[in-house]
Amino acid sequence: MLIIGCGNPDRADDAAGLLVAARLRELGIDARSHGGDMLALIDEWSSEQEVIMVDAVVSGARPGAITTWDARKAVLPRDCFSCSTHAFGMAEAVELARALGLLPRTLIVYGIEAINFEPGGPLSPEVAAAVERLAKDLAASVNRKPLATAAPKLLNSV
User: Fold this and answer.
1) Distance between alpha carbon 4 and the CA centroid of its chain, in Å?
2) What is the set of domains in the chain, with CATH numbers?
3) Cα separation, 151 vs 96, whole angstroms
4) Does residue 151 register a pLDDT over 80?
5) What are 29-66's pLDDT values in tens digits?
6) Cβ 27 vs Cβ 79: under 8 Å
């Protein structure tokens, strides 16, 4: 299983996915950080069958809310991932991979509702709490069972 945290470390809450990956590594779980070209995600997961991705989102939910999508079953809502500074974001990368038949067998996406994208700004307290909560939940699920059986329990908004 591959866990990828996405984001920009220099844009406050946009670092949420990167911080989840870093926290997972502290907890002894292998997780990668991805802060660059979102198109490169397709190459990054190409040899994996089970993938979890984490990123900051703006959906209108309360700050720090965690929303989960099963990207194999539904299209990611493009507008939720529009907080990226990249014109080609996570939603576009997933949909390109879908069109090319390059999605992994399992692709679960966790979005942490962000509110502050100020360059050099601090992480908001709500997002910091969500990072810790999600990292602990993912670590517990990874340690308990394979993703295919653990993920459905987490498939909802927290």
Assistant:
1) 7
2) 2-154 (3.40.50.1450)
3) 23
4) no
5) 999 999 877 778 888 888 889 999 999 999 999 999 99
6) no
